[in-house]
Amino acid sequence: MKKIIFFLFLALLSWGSVQAQLRLNGYASYLFDDSFDNRYTSTSYLTGRINGGFQWGVGLTYMLQQDYGLELMYYRQDTDGPVNYYRNGPVSDVLDVGINYIMLGGVRYLQVHPVFEPYGGLMAGMVIYSNKNPEINEPGSITKFAWGLRLGSNIWLSEQIGLKVQTHLFSAVQGIGGSFYLGTGGSGAGINAYSTLFQFGLGGGLTIKLGEQ
């Protein structure tokens, strides 16, 4: 998968160098907390929270038309959060992870003003959770399908450079699971519950036109 993403970047870059239709984007956002609760019985549950925090990202947009583009993006967040589960009795722990989104999405721009350029779009791709403190026999990372949506606006300071304001939502389908961070060793009484994760963010960034558009 990493090789595929790398070659997609190269393809966009080589194509855009001839067509001069690329935009380089940088992102900085704050993500809010999200809780999850899979509770079945008094001895079968998984509850917790993913704490909010800073998220950064980069993206490369190819302008298919004047008002429509296709963007390949990477977002990163380092965070933690408390979890509670049952394994031979109630257990409390702290989840410590890096969350990596690799997304491909369409962007529709509204040409309403020379300075303000509102946009919106849908995204789809994958999220990779890296476990910073895995237990014995526990995986160091897991990969899940992810989708997202966003609304924002570019504010052009010049013909080539603009500021971004943006709100976005990322969702990882079955993103949090007992088998990821609770371990598979010991008594073997692990949890198979999963919970969909929703992460809502507010932020902005910088966009640069590479060539005439």
Give a summary of the structure in a few sentences:
The protein is mainly β. The chain has helices at 2-19, 178-181; strands spanning 22-31, 34-41, 44-50, 53-65, 68-86, 90-109, 116-131, 141-156, 161-177, 194-210.
Topology:
Layout: H1 2-19, E1 22-31, E2 34-41, E3 44-50, E4 53-65, E5 68-86, E6 90-109, E7 116-131, E8 141-156, E9 161-177, H2 178-181, E10 194-210
Could you describe the 3D structure shown?
An eight-stranded antiparallel barrel has the order 1-4-5-6-7-8-9-10. Residues 178-191 have low confidence and may be disordered. It has helices at 2-19, 178-181; strands at 22-31, 34-41, 44-50, 53-65, 68-86, 90-109, 116-131, 141-156, 161-177, 194-210. The longest helix has 18 residues, at 2-19. By secondary structure, the protein is mainly beta. The radius of gyration is 20 Å and the shape is elongated. It has one domain (2-32, 49-77, 99-131, 140-180, 191-210): Porin, CATH 2.40.160.20. The chain contains two helices and ten strands; from the N terminus they run αβββββββββαβ.
Give a short account of the largest sheet.
8 strands, antiparallel, barrel
CATH architecture: Beta Barrel
Number of domains: 1
**Share of helix, binned:** 10-25%
Question: What's the total number of strands?
Answer: 10
**Gyration radius from CA atoms, angstroms:** 20 Å
The CATH topology corresponds to Porin
Strand content of the residues, in percent? over 45%
- For the record, what CATH class applies? Mainly Beta
Structural class call reads: mainly beta
Mean pLDDT level: 80
Q: Report low-confidence residues grouped into runs of 5 or more.
A: 178-191
Given the structure, what is the number of helices? 2
Q: Can you list the strand order of the major beta sheet? A: 1-4-5-6-7-8-9-10
Order of helices and strands: HEEEEEEEEEHE
Distance between the termini: 31 Å
Principal-axis shape equals: elongated
